[in-house]
Amino acid sequence: MSQLLCIPFKKTIHADLKEKLAKLINANFYQTSSIFEDDLIKLSKLREIAVKVNVSETDLKKLKEYYIQFCQLKIKFPDDQLEVTWFETLGLKSYGRKCSSFQFEELNLVYNIGAMYSMLAVDNNNGSPEGQKKTCQYFQLSAGCFDYISSHVHESNDISMDENAISSLKYLMLAQAQETVWWKAIGDNLKPALTARLAYQVSLFYELAWKEAKMSELIKSDWQKRFQERSLYFVAVARYRQSLDFEERKEYGAKVAALKSASTHLNEIKLEDESVIAFMSKIRESSKIAERDNDLIYLQPVPPVLPTLKPAPMVKCIYFEGLKQPFDDKILESIGGPLFKSLLPISVMEASTAFNERQDEYVQQHVVAPIKALTNLLKEHIPTFELPEALKPMSENDLQAYELSMVELQLNNKNISDVLHQIRLILEQEASTDSSLRSRHGSLRWTLKDSQTANSEYIQRYEKISSYLNQGRKVDDDTFQLFLTVDKALLTNPVKLPESTDPLVKEASDVIKQRDAYIIEVEAKSASNSLLPKIISLYKKTRATEFEDLFAEHLVIFRDDLTFVQQEKKRNEVLIRKLVEHTERDTTKRLDARDLYVQDFKYSLKILEDVKENIKSGSTFYQDLMKSATALLNDVQKFEASRKEEKKGLEMLLMSNATDS
């Protein structure tokens, strides 16, 4: 079996977790660190395994135990408090990186567990059936570690690892696991058709490892070269095995083609490896014999293109127990239970924060929002010209944004028009070519469908999209004309209206001011009545982690505020009734300048709202239409290419017939 690669351990230096966690407990929790002395010592000892790790099943078990126990810390402790240092060892130069997030330590631990599995895999690579089985399993477990890192490295803003390097290592482990399966299949003398598919999958895994390695700054060039050449080697192996399958099926021409393909791939390999050189020699000899036998005996045509090899993946990423479920009770029991079990969890603090947010939502929903709704309802019944606060001038930039949006709609229309023009040119050119060839060869001999029939579907789609585009252009023009009717000077100049002298309106305005002040008071009341002290007290007494009932009892402090809302509802009804009667009595009142000003202002705002809606719907309309036009262009290009091939084929046939006759 070929030499397999293993991943070197990352290195780390001593970090006094005992001292750091003790300080965190004393500074942030309601307990003292002395209570957790044994847990602190045990965790520190587990980390020392990561500092001085050796290749063994025992150290692997300890590494996994440390990983699972370390994962428990983020339930209890705040993040970004424990600074650790890890050193990259994959590249030519080793460099260190410091970070304080839990995830940084966790992912580096998973990395070293993956590295440990790769080393144990190589150690068990002794050629025995049991050794092959273990090697394959360990490589898959190693791949699972690197796959886990790939899927979690984005969870933090701090990118702590080279993603391409991690992906490359994952595919390397899968390639070597698949290679182990292939070797066993060869040893078991399985059919060439299957061993070819197994070998091809090995090649694909190595190819993926090589592609990711090329984009990494960590993977060394000699490893990159090895990945590439192992990929080429196993493509050649797959073709060789395929040639044996062709021989069994008496397809001797295809056998020659497969051996040539194998030779082509081997010639791309520059690595001076004895096994590769021997295999090259074997392929050349086999190819020479196959060609001679086919030329003298079988006389079968050699196909220019071989059937596509179908890979047969027999390996996958396997995740060690506890990698994805470090909080599982059974897993924790297997390592003696979680550390810091009696420490008041950070989740209690988080629960308090969550309940404070829910309390704020409750106040907003049951007190603040109803009061604001009552105020808005009241404002609707105040005479229009008595509402200066509703007349807010716009800026020149706001109006300019409308103009720019309409220009953008016109550009979208033009872009789609350009796509349609391109479609029409393609269809016209195809029709012209068809007509020319039909005239040259005659309708009886030129048997292809005429263009008018063949492209009718595309013409219909073209005309439909063109119709929609014209409709869109008309709506854009109408929208622009509508925008021109807006009184821009009215909307952008400061609003200056005298205060109302109407006693009823003044009363309504005073009520609105009182309610605004009340909202400020109730929000301050909510902010100053946190649930945290009650939660901590209950947790210490009962160890409860559910606080819904406590929260419901706590909300009683807002009972008077709910009563206030009901009182304001009745007050609103009385005021609105008076305002309605007041408005009805004043229906015959002659409009003055203030009335006209407000009406003109609102009219222009209404026009702007209509313009805004047209712009919004127009943007969606053009996005959908561009998708349809682009899809049609792709279909037309495929149609034109297909027709071109058909014409070429028919013309060659007609010319051939003419020559023969």
UniProtKB/TrEMBL annotation:
GO CC annotation terms, alphabetical: endosome
InterPro entries found in the cross-reference section: ALIX_V_dom, BRO1_dom, BRO1_sf
CDD domains named in the record: BRO1_ScRim20-like
Domain BRO1 positions: 3-378
Family (UniProt): Belongs to the palA/RIM20 family.
The protein's name: LAFE_0E05974g1_1
Species lineage: Eukaryota, Fungi, Dikarya, Ascomycota, Saccharomycotina
